[in-house]
Amino acid sequence: MLAITTASLAAGVWRWQASPSMHGAIAFVMIWATLDLLFLLAALGVLYEKPQRRSEPRAWLDEELVLWVKGRPFRARASDGSRLGIGVDIGFSELDAATRQRALDLFHQAAIVTLRFADGKVLQARIENRQWGPRKQHLHLGLAYRFANIQDERYAVDLAFGDSARLQENLDRRHQGKSILGALAHIAVLAVIEGSKNLWWQLRNLWDLAYGAMGRTLRHGKTKELT
Predict the structure, then answer these.
(1) How far apart are CA 175 and CA 190, in angstroms?
(2) Residue 12 contacts by C-beta under 8 Å, 6 or more apart in sequence?
(3) What is 59-164's CATH number?
(4) Where do the TM regions start and end (predicted)?
(5) Counting runs of H as helices and runs of E as strands, what totals does the chain give?
């Protein structure tokens, strides 16, 4: 379907140039074909997304903190949190190339980090996953807390969900509606980024399968000649 839709758009461009008197009808059909292409790519993007299996609900956060890795501090910002873990964003764009590389090596090797929050509270956490941004100038860490006592766990719950005002704010943010243009923009971004990734992944798999089958056929033919 993706190939047919792409071919129809190419045919529409050719008809646009060949039939000036039908520009209105051709433009109408091409608009719908473009939407079909976006929806197909968005469907591929959804298939490409990794499944998320979380044992605890995550709440949106916007808290500054200092993250210590092997005795070195980094300014960071918490993006989401739960009773058991926290998501942290770290930027490296202000560092020079040599310092950035040393920092990247630290985060590649580290397994345990220390979090110091604005109120002075300190928690230990284990790195569960790392997501690098473009040109490795940004890093998102998924951390699992290592509680030393019940007070640490209570602090994590309070940080993530807080009082009733913060809970209501998170609920409102989660359930807020999107405009039609906002929804279309979200679909377009999903189609262009995730859909393209999935399409490239599918083409690579098809190439590997075809190349592997060709190799087996050639090897089988040579075996027959030898026997």
Answers:
(1) 20
(2) 26, 29, 30, 33
(3) 2.40.10.220
(4) 25-48
(5) 7, 6
Cβ pair 74, 64 in contact under 8 A: no
Instruction: Name residue 135's amino acid.
Output: R
Percent of the chain having pLDDT more than 90? 20
Give the max Cα distance, the chain: 80
Tokens encoding 36: 């079909």
* 181-207 confidence digits (pLDDT tens): 777 787 787 777 777 777 777 777 777
**Domains of the chain: which residue ranges?**
2-48, 59-164
Contact 48, 198 (CB under 8 A): yes
- Give the chain's radius of gyration (CA, Å): 25
Instruction: Return the residue matching tokens 């070195």.
Output: 72
Orientation angle between helical segments 23-48 and 196-226, nearest 10 degrees: 70
SS3 115: strand
Kindly state the tokens that stand for 217: 């056929």
Global pTM exceeds 0.85: no
